[in-house]
Design a protein that fits this description.
Blueprint (H helix, E strand, L loop, with lengths): L1 E6 L2 E4 L4 E4 L1 E5 L2 E6 L7 E6 L4 E4 L2 E5 L12 H4 L7 E9 L3 H8 L6 E7 L26 H10 L4 E7 L11 H15 L3 E4 L7 H5 L7 E3 L18 H8 L3 E2 L10 H9 L23 H10 L4 H6 L3 H6 L17 E14 L5 E15 L2 E5 L4
Parallel strand pairs: 1-6, 2-7, 8-9, 9-10, 10-11, 11-12, 12-13, 13-14
Antiparallel strand pairs: 1-4, 2-3, 4-5, 7-15, 15-16, 16-17
Helix pairs in contact: 3-4
The structure holds zinc ion.
Length: 385
């Protein structure tokens, strides 16, 4: 007998190019069957998915979950796994001096499946622009040590998937430390064979100069921000350097955040067929009660901007699974994969939602997680909605 069945839902599994009614069985933490009907088979628990959408558990490539150490940190479980992001990647909250605590006290104790990008600054995001004292991690280049970063990565290869750097004038001595820090991140990336994720809002470098230092599989996060070093020319056109970066295999991620997502910038870019590779939330303490809320809400904003649901779900399942090189295991409901899934309700009506610039738009259509399954067990039921 299987542990769990989800029956009758519309399954959207972009990794398998599936969008059809399928029943899914979970057993011993994994996907055990994916068939047209399980009606004649027993299961310890059955979820009636009729009228609902079943998708692989979402992967959020950009969150901040080092609560108690980084002022940005949130408890990952209520906002990640309980809201359908069964896997999340901490984007640089910790550096080589502080990663040990992230591993031991957060990653190993949370229900959300967690990975990390290591901040090139050994202190990570302990203080910074929104906190007292207002001292960013790139203010003093003595906090950056390539050997320390490489040693930390080599000792934690199972969890550290890349390097994170935040390029902003207010974190990097008015901007003068930005390029030296980026070159050190490049050196650590080359020594470990891992990608770099770059935060660009308020960078003094300009996006073309940043992109010139990036290689295949590196990631620009906060793609649709409206500050300095954005993707658009003042004319509104997507910069030619950005187009060439995509051709070179550089990835563009949403990273909504508190200050980094503009409906207007996104709309202008999408109108020029410049789509994000991945949709992430950048959830942290200053945006979890708005404008971000959770990853499903960020996905919903892209439905509002015109993406079809299967395309939007691909950007939080199959594509980020490939980015973190876990595509056999995560981001799909292929038989044998991890038993992580989310059942959504597709809602219609009127839901006003702000972007990071204070602009509010009325969503007519959005998705809400109803059930979340992690390792084959139901961990959240939002059935009252
Ligand atoms: Zn962030």
């Amino acid at each position: 007998m299987h542990d769990l069945h989800i029956r009758g839902a519309r399954l959207i599994d972009p990794a398998q190019n599936l969008d059809e009614r399928r029943d899914v069985a979970f057993h011993s933490g994994r996907v055990a069957a994916l068939v047209p009907s399980l009606d004649d088979q027993p299961a310890a628990e059955v979820i009636d998915g009729r009228g609902l959408i079943l998708a692989p558990g979402m992967i959020d490539l950009h969150v901040h979950i080092y609560q108690g150490v980084s002022h940005y940190g949130i408890d990952p479980d209520p906002k990640c796994v309980m809201r359908g992001a069964t896997t999340a990647v901490d984007a640089g909250s910790s550096g080589a001096s502080t990663f040990g605590g992230l591993r031991r006290y957060i990653i190993e104790t949370s229900a959300t499946r967690l990975f990390a990008l290591l901040n090139i600054s050994c202190i990570g995001m302990v203080t910074g622009a929104e906190s007292e004292p207002d001292v960013g991690e790139l203010e003093d280049l003595r906090h950056l040590s390539v050997p320390a970063a490489v040693r930390c990565i080599e000792a934690n290869r199972d969890l550290i998937l890349g390097i994170k750097i935040r390029l902003s004038d207010n974190l990097a001595a008015g901007g003068k430390n930005e390029m030296p820090a980026l070159l050190l991140a490049r050196e650590a990336a080359a020594a470990t064979g891992l990608p770099i994720m770059v935060h660009t809002p308020r960078s003094t470098l300009g996006l073309p100069a940043i992109l010139a230092e990036l290689r295949r599989d590196d990631i620009i996060t906060h793609t649709y921000h409206a500050r300095e070093s954005g993707i658009l020319h003042p004319s509104g056109d997507v910069l030619p350097e950005v187009r060439r970066a995509v051709e070179r295999g550089i990835l563009f991620d949403v990273g909504h955040g508190q200050g980094s997502f503009s409906y207007e910038v996104a709309r202008q870019a999408l109108a020029q067929d410049f789509l994000p590779h991945t949709i992430s939330s950048d959830l942290h303490r200053y945006n979890l009660d708005g404008p971000v809320y959770d990853l499903a809400t960020t996905v919903s904003k892209f439905l509002h901007l015109g993406l079809e649901l299967p395309d939007a779900l691909r950007k939080v399942t199959a594509t980020p699974a490939t980015v973190i090189k876990r595509e056999q295991e995560l981001g799909t409901l292929r038989v044998g994969a991890a038993g992580d899934a989310v059942v959504f309700r597709e809602c219609t009506g009127s839901r006003p939602l702000p972007d990071s610039m204070g602009r509010v738009e009325e969503l007519r259509r959005w998705i809400e997680p109803v059930y979340v399954v992690r390792a084959g067990k139901v961990v959240a039921r939002h059935v009252a909605a």
